[in-house]
Structures are given as C-alpha cells and as structure tokens.
Design brief:
Layout: E1 7-11, H1 22-33, E2 37-43, E3 48-49, E4 53-62, E5 65-66, E6 72-78, E7 84-91, E8 96-102, E9 110-117, E10 130-137, E11 143-147, E12 153-159, E13 170-178, E14 186-192, E15 201-204, E16 210-215, E17 223-229, E18 234-238, E19 246-253, E20 257-265, E21 273-279, E22 282-289, E23 296-300, E24 307-314, E25 320-328, E26 340-344, E27 352-357, E28 365-372, H2 384-391, H3 411-419, H4 428-432, E29 447-455, E30 458-459, E31 464-471, E32 478-484, E33 490-496, E34 501-509, E35 519-525, E36 541-545, H5 554-596, E37 606-610, H6 623-627, E38 634-639, E39 642-647, E40 650-651, E41 653-656, E42 659-661, H7 663-666, E43 674-680, E44 694-699, E45 717-722, H8 738-741, E46 750-758, E47 764-769, E48 777-785, E49 790-798
Parallel strand pairs: 1-22, 3-10, 41-44
Antiparallel strand pairs: 2-4, 4-5, 4-8, 6-7, 6-9, 9-10, 11-36, 12-13, 13-16, 14-15, 14-17, 17-18, 19-20, 20-23, 21-22, 21-24, 24-25, 26-27, 27-47, 28-46, 28-48, 29-30, 29-33, 29-35, 31-32, 31-34, 34-45, 37-43, 38-39, 39-40, 41-42, 43-44, 48-49
Length: 799
C-alpha cells in the first residue's frame, strides 16, 4: 500500500470551519468503498496481420499497487463502428493475468480497438477502462492504412491552477491536440493585443503534446498566444481576461519536496483556508491557513510515492477555490530493475542465446519479452510506467506518454502537461454533497455459477446434491463436491478456475431414492461481458485505395513473412507432438499387450485396441458393435438378437481373457470393464489349429486407471459448464530439434514470449533462438515488487 503522509499544519489563528471534516470524510468514504482500478496490457508486438494471434499480459492496479479486487479480466476486440469482433476473459491472480485473442482472417485492413476492463470498473466512468488502438494489416484488402497527415492541430492555453490575476506571475501550459498527429517541432510567442507585432515572450514546444511560458499580467490588458509549426500552420489563442481578485496556486516539485505558494488579491473576508493534498484518492497532506499571504510551504517528497499529487484549496465553507496537479519526485523514479546475469548472445543466424534473471523473493513471476532489436513494441508509446503513473488516471489523448518516464525524460514537460489536466476520478462537489457512485456490478470470485435443483419441475428446497466434476483436458481429473440448496432450491458454485469445459454429473442425495430422470439441475453463470456504451476513439489513420500492383512496404512484407513462419512453427510443433504421442501410445500399448495376452494369443497379423492408454470414446453398449468398420474385412452381423463377428465371410471365435465365449455373453460385459481388444486375422496358436482368426477381449485388472474411463457414459446425469477460453500457446522454436531446422526463412520479430516466468526459487534462465538477421535484442521484463511497492521494469536493447 502507499506510504501515507498525513501532514497537518496550522498556519496562524483560525476559527473552526463550519463543516471542518466534511471534505476529509467524503474522501475517506470514496477511497474505502469505491477503490479505483486501472489496467496495463503488454502485447507480444505492436501491430498485427489478419489471422494472427494477439498475446497479452495484464497487470491490474488499484492505485499504485496490484489489485486484489477483481479476479477476472474481460478483453474485447471492436472495429471503428463499435462492432464486436471477438472476446475472451482470463483469471487474475494478485492483479495479474494473461491470454490471447485471435484476429479473423477475413478482417479488412484498418485500426481496431482492444477494450479491457473488470466488472468492478464498470461501476465508474468508462473513460478509465482501457481502450487500445491496434493497427491490423491485410495485403489483400482493397484499402490500406496511412497516417492522417491532413487533420489540423489546434492549441489551448491553461493558466496554472486555472487563475490569471493582475500582478501575479503565472505559468501557462500550451497543449496541442489533433485527430491525427501533432507536430514534434513547434513554437509560440505572446503579444499584447494592442501591439500585435511586438513579441513579449517566445517559447518552443517541449514535445508534440505541450509547451510552457510565464507571464505577469497587467489589469486592463488582453493577451494572445500565436502558435506555429515548421510547415507554416498557425493558430492564435486569446488568453483569459485578467482578473483583479482571486487566489493563485504555484507549485514546484523537485527531488526534495513539493513546494507550493498561495497568493491572492482583493480577497473577501474568510475565516480560513483548507489545503488538501491527495494521491490515489486518499489524503496525504492537510494544512489550515488563517490567510493567504504568499508564504511558500513544502511537502517532504521522501514521505510520498511517485505519482500524481493533487493540491486543492478550499475556503471556510469548503468551496473549492483552485487546484493543481503535479508529479512527485520525477527526478527519482523508484523502479526496480531486474539484474541480468550470464548474458550469452550471438549474432549468428538461429543461434542459441540465453541470460538469467536474479531470483526475487518478493514476486512469483515476471513477464519476459525478447524481440529483434529493430522491432516495434507495444511499450514504445505507453508502457507500464506511464500507465501506472499517468495514463491510467489521466484519460485525455497524450502522444507517446512513455517518454515522460524514460532516462532522458523532461520533468518540465510533464509538469506543463499536468497543468493542462484535471483529476477526474472524483469531483469534490459531488463528494461533499454525498453523491457517490452507484454500485451495480460487484466483483466476481473467478468463475461462479448459480444452480437450481428441481424435481418434476418443482424446486427442491434444503436438498443435498452430490456433484462430480470431470475435466476434459489431456490430463483428466475428477473431483467430488456436495452442496445444499436453500429454501427455494438454489445453490452457488464460487471460485472455479478451469479452461474450456467442465463436465458435471449430479445426483440428488435423498432417502426417498428419487429416480434421476425426475431430477433437473440448471446452471446460470454469475459473470458476463458488459456492453460498452461510449464510442471508439477517433483513429489517427486514414484508409486509401490500394494499387493492386504496388509493392508491399518492408514493414508489412515482414509481417506476412512472420505470419507464415508462425504457421510453419505450429505445424512443426503439431508434428513433433503427434510423433511423441504416437510413440508413447505405441510403447504403452505394446506393454499392455505383453502383460495381458499369452504367447498363444499373439500374431504378426493382429489389430490391437487399447482402452487403458488410448481414449477411444466408446459410446456403444456392445463392444462387437463398436468394432464395426474399424478393422478391414471384419463384419459384425446381427443373428438371433446377438452380434456375430465375420471375417472375410467366415465366423470367428470370441475369447474373453483367452477363454472361449459366445456372443450372448459378450453383450453382458460393460464396455467400461474392457482393457484391450485384439482382432487376430488367420492362424494363431490359441485357436488350436483354426485358421479363421479370433476376437480376444481382455477385461480390466486392478490398477488400470488409464484415460479410457474418463469419457465413459455415467449412470449419473451430466451437464457442461463453460470455463475460461482455452489459451493458444505461444511457440518459441527450438532449433536443436531437426524439425524446426527445416524452416526455410526465419524473420520473427518476437524471439521469446513468456508472461509467467517463475523467478522465486532460483535464478530464472531465459533461452531463445535468433532469427536469420537479428544483431541486437530488445529485452522487456515486467513485474511488481510487493515488498518495496515498486514496479519492476526493464526495457533495453542489448548486443
């Protein structure tokens, strides 16, 4: 949690306020009952091609710490018309989660939008949900994306603390905005409107967002700012009228303290002023002043955390007079930088590279992304630090906000930017009136379902229900659970975490032995995607007609090559896994055959069906019926109500555990009790000279618990529950495997992706293989140190 500073000063003699604790109590209520979340998404890359997967890692913060409020993150993809393309949701553990979302192959080239939110966030302004534009390219699309260089920019001027008072030096922030792109090089000057040709002050923009100047106004004068760029575009801005009375707040933040000065002119009588400092919607500073005298006060910076501090000034009736945002200790950003060890990098094509990350007892895992050093990253514009400290709370359009937290960042630019912004997580007036947000949607506990039990259509109150949960993945498992319904027949299942589908068998536990056909259980999920009410942001790109004969830009051509590589990688992995699985099954089946069958019942011409190690999805009641069509030459005929096996027109013998059996007896054997079936064609020793072959059935023995039983029909009634969508695995190729070495060209931009690299137990090793061209590598590591309350961040190009 934040290191709190409740620093109270009393300046001079004051009478008590009419409602002295009203502001503080309202703020405390808001912080405790309405905590605010914000989201950062790390994508595996910046731009995509249709048909690709978008892999992401999410960190959800509550203030400046990972959130423990929400356990689910919802992610949706929209086009510019707010048509939803696809969606997914992932579980959050201590605010962290990861997953993927697929781009349909049929998408047209355009800018699309990723929306990410938690259920709790939907109780507040949609402005604070994450909306991230994604450029999606499609070379076969009739139109192509180009940067919007046609939309004009416009400028606005903001006086510090919102007041412009006669004789008080005032700092102005000049903010550029545009639907498209704002100029990186621009300048401005200030004139007295009565002397438009005389430049009073000249200044240059800090960046494409903001610039600043300072002016001491005179009463009766009118001032104007002229802003122009290197292309000749120009705009004039009239500054506010000069006021003859009011309060002005000037703030200067440095590594030692946040110093602020309150000045005023021609103020009406007041019984005192309240100065409130807030960070993350909580009180960190309070001072009470008898009068505004121009005195400078300081808030010790070492008692605060990095982040946005809001200073608000109230009169004795708790009316807000002025306020100002500033950043605390921009010069001393508290960032934990992971230490890389044993760095072994090579420039050779497809060479093995590796490094280790020092273990960290304060964090279970890091997100690690390694890219070709020339590739673009989603962290280029808005990274973990800028989300945590700026854009997670300030939702106006800021060009490349990550610039304000890199090693060459300009603190003056960030300060000017914050002069032009307001804190919109809450409104002081609404809080003090007691108008708090209405909570309609409470956080879920992962996947939750509400169930209703009925017997012959009537609710089953206060009934005991036995539930058997079965997973359907490669390693199936079973769990038992008993629930009791309420007086209306309802019950709840909370805190479920599973992928894809969970099979639930149920049985009413009743002394009356109610037939299962009379019992019905209905499940309703307690979680859902919530529609987006607002509009998508305006795109900074335009669509123009694509010339059928034009050459693809190198960047897009690289995307196409990379997409083909990913397809090949998936195929190679599938082939490798199939070979491994087939080999494994063959070995296990060979062992089973050797264990169950004697030498008399072995033949070089036999077909073996393994029901212990190979899930054959046996849905038939009779095993002979199931064999129909599975063995060449074998025909199962119905004679006298029994199934009779015929092999090439001749009846074959049936054996159960190598003892002769008739077809009638076979119908009494449950398929669930069968371990192996082999069809022997032609002569075999166990037939005592017979040449027609045999069907040998072997029943299960003690300890046989293979996969064959996992999908057998149960005597219990079943229902399926939907879980988290199954994630698409990211493939990091292994060139030590011969199959991967067959790839003709490797132009991957992403060389390694692991959103959950464990780093607690020992130094974590990251190993990856070069593409065909990389000469340097961009390494991004992301996490959070819960002991020191600092973000963990590494984003550098190494050679």
């Amino acid at each position: 949690m934040m290191r709190k500073l409740i620093f109270i000063l009393v300046l001079g003699m004051v009478n008590e306020f009419n409602s002295q604790i009203k502001v503080e109590e309202a703020l405390k209520t808001f912080k405790e009952k309405y905590p605010q979340e914000k989201i950062h998404l790390l994508f595996d890359k910046k731009n995509y091609l249709t048909g690709e997967n978008i892999w992401f890692k999410a960190i959800v913060f509550e203030g400046y710490n990972p959130s423990t409020i929400s356990t689910n993150l919802f992610v949706e993809l929209y086009d510019q018309n707010k048509t939803q393309i696809t969606k997914t949701f992932v579980p959050l553990l201590n605010g962290k989660g990861g997953g993927s979302i697929s781009l349909p192959e049929t998408l047209k080239e355009n800018v699309y939008y990723i929306r990410a939110y938690t259920t709790w966030m939907t109780n507040f302004s949609e402005d604070f949900q994450l909306i991230r534009p994604i450029e999606v390219y499609n070379p076969s699309s009739p139109e192509k994306l180009v940067k919007d260089s046609l939309s004009a920019w416009h400028a606005e001027a903001y006086p510090e603390s919102g007041t412009f008072i006669e004789g008080i030096p005032t700092k102005f922030a000049v903010r550029l905005r545009s639907k498209g792109f704002t100029p990186s090089k621009w300048s401005g000057y200030v004139v007295d409107t009565e002397k438009p040709d005389t430049k009073m002050i000249s200044f240059d923009g800090f960046d494409e967002n903001v610039g600043a100047f300072e002016l001491t106004p005179q009463n009766g004068k009118k001032y104007r700012v002229i802003v122009f760029d290197s292309n000749g575009a120009k705009q004039s801005i009239d500054l506010p009228d000069v006021a003859v009375s009011g309060v002005h707040l000037q703030v200067k933040s440095n590594s030692e303290a946040v110093a602020f000065t309150l000045t005023g002119k021609n103020l009406s009588a007041s019984q005192g002023y309240k100065i409130i400092g807030t960070m993350d919607n909580q009180l960190v500073y309070k001072a009470i002043a008898a009068k505004i005298s121009g005195q400078t006060l300081s808030i010790p910076a070492d008692r605060l955390v990095n982040g946005i501090l809001q200073i608000s000034i109230f009169d004795d009736h708790e009316n807000l007079l002025v306020q100002r945002l500033c950043f605390v200790q921009h010069e001393l950003l508290k960032i934990k930088k992971p230490e890389l060890q044993s760095l072994s990098l090579s420039e050779s094509p497809r060479a093995s590279n590796s490094f280790s990350i020092t273990k960290d007892d304060s964090e279970s895992d890091y997100s690690v992304l390694v890219m070709d050093g020339n590739a673009q990253s989603s962290e280029d514009d808005n990274n973990l630090l800028s989300t945590l400290w700026l854009t997670g709370d300030i939702k106006s359009n800021i060009s490349s906000p990550a610039r304000y937290f890199d090693k060459n960042s300009n603190g003056e630019a960030l300060d000017a930017l914050l002069i032009s912004e307001k804190w919109k997580r809450f409104d002081w007036k609404m809080l003090t009136l007691g108008n708090f947000p209405m909570i309609k949607n409470k956080p879920e506990n992962y996947i939750s379902y509400k169930g209703k039990v009925s017997v012959l259509g009537n609710p089953a109150p206060n009934a005991d229900l036995n539930l058997v949960f079965s997973t359907t993945d490669k390693s199936p498992s079973t769990a038992f659970h008993q629930v009791k319904t309420d007086d209306k027949g309802f019950f709840s299942l909370n805190g479920l975490v599973f992928e894809d589908v969970l099979k639930v068998s149920y049985q009413l536990n009743s002394e009356q032995k109610i037939p299962k056909e009379q019992v019905q259980v209905i499940f309703q999920p307690n979680f859902d995607f919530i529609p987006y009410k607002g509009n998508m942001p305006e795109s900074r790109y335009l669509l123009t007609k694509r010339d059928a004969n034009e050459k693809l830009p190198d960047e897009i051509a690289g995307y196409v090559t990379n997409k083909n590589i990913q397809k090949t990688l998936r195929e190679k992995v599938t082939d490798i896994e199939e070979v491994k699985l087939t080999g494994q099954k063959k070995n296990l089946t060979k062992t089973l055959n050797a264990t169950l069958s004697s030498s008399l019942f072995r033949s070089g011409n036999e077909v073996v069906f393994d029901f212990v190690n190979d899930n054959n999805n046996v849905a038939s009641v009779n095993i002979l019926q199931w064999l129909q069509g599975r063995v060449a030459g074998l025909d199962i005929q119905s004679q006298g109500g029994n199934y009779v096996p015929m092999l090439r027109g001749s009846r074959v013998g049936i054996y159960v555990d190598e003892m002769p059996a008739d077809a009638g007896y076979i119908s009494s054997i449950s398929v669930a009790d069968i371990a192996m079936v082999k069809v022997i064609k032609g002569y075999f020793a166990g037939g005592f000279g017979g040449g027609n072959g045999a069907i040998a059935i072997y029943t299960r023995r003690g300890g046989m618990t293979g996969s064959a039983n996992s999908n057998q029909p149960s005597m219990l009634k079943k229902i399926s529950l939907k879980g988290y969508p199954k994630d698409t695995p990211f493939i990091n190729p292994d060139y030590s495997n011969e199959e991967f070495r067959k790839i003709p060209k490797d132009a991957r931009s992403v060389l390694y992706w692991n959103p959950f690299l464990e780093i607690q137990r020992e130094p974590a090793k990251v190993q990856f293989y070069n593409n065909d061209e990389a000469r340097n590598y961009r390494i991004i590591i992301m996490g959070y140190d819960k002991n020191s309350y600092m973000p963990v961040y590494y984003n550098e190009v190494v050679k």
